């Protein structure tokens, strides 16, 4: 499969660690590309609606090439730190910009990884999972997994051997 991973964190921390564990398992059998929104030049959605009647977004930045990659993927992995009880702005930026070609994202296989500084029974993970549940229903996604992890310091998740193995196994089992 072609797997696109959207990394919602700008720091080389827990979200990246989680992504790398997943990639370790998944890379043998799949073609993988990681999108790093903070390294791209993407303006936020203006809600102009022009995209609904023309080809893609009117912004002449990295929006359309990025959405091309997402639309061409068989699977999308959304990975994000928890920021203020929700996904990060970096990830939400990309999701909002997919509005112009939302229907091209129908029927994708999808996974989510969320890392937050509070224990995984806290409300934020449920809120984020529910938001993805709604998107999945709307776009007929095959939601393969939704994983939440608790880690605060940059290198904390890498010390969680159970989490590392779980993510590698998820990647292997794709
Ligand atoms: C702006 C900001 C807001 C945050 N808000 C929350 C929050 O609401 N709930 C939570 O559990 N952790 C919160 N955190 C902690 C991060 O989710 C946590 O440190 C995570 O491991 C960061 O992932 P990273 O290392 O990939 O950047 C916040 C961190 C930042 C920088």
UniProtKB/TrEMBL annotation:
<dbReference type="InterPro" id="IPR051796">
    <property type="entry name" value="ISF_SsuE-like"/>
</dbReference>
<dbReference type="InterPro" id="IPR005025">
    <property type="entry name" value="FMN_Rdtase-like_dom"/>
</dbReference>
<dbReference type="GO" id="GO:0016491">
    <property type="term" value="F:oxidoreductase activity"/>
</dbReference>
<keyword id="KW-0288">FMN</keyword>
<keyword id="KW-0285">Flavoprotein</keyword>
<dbReference type="InterPro" id="IPR029039">
    <property type="entry name" value="Flavoprotein-like_sf"/>
</dbReference>
<feature type="domain" description="NADPH-dependent FMN reductase-like">
    <location>
        <begin position="1"/>
        <end position="120"/>
    </location>
</feature>
<dbReference type="Pfam" id="PF03358">
    <property type="entry name" value="FMN_red"/>
</dbReference>
<protein>
    <recommendedName>
        <fullName>NADPH-dependent FMN reductase-like domain-containing protein</fullName>
    </recommendedName>
</protein>
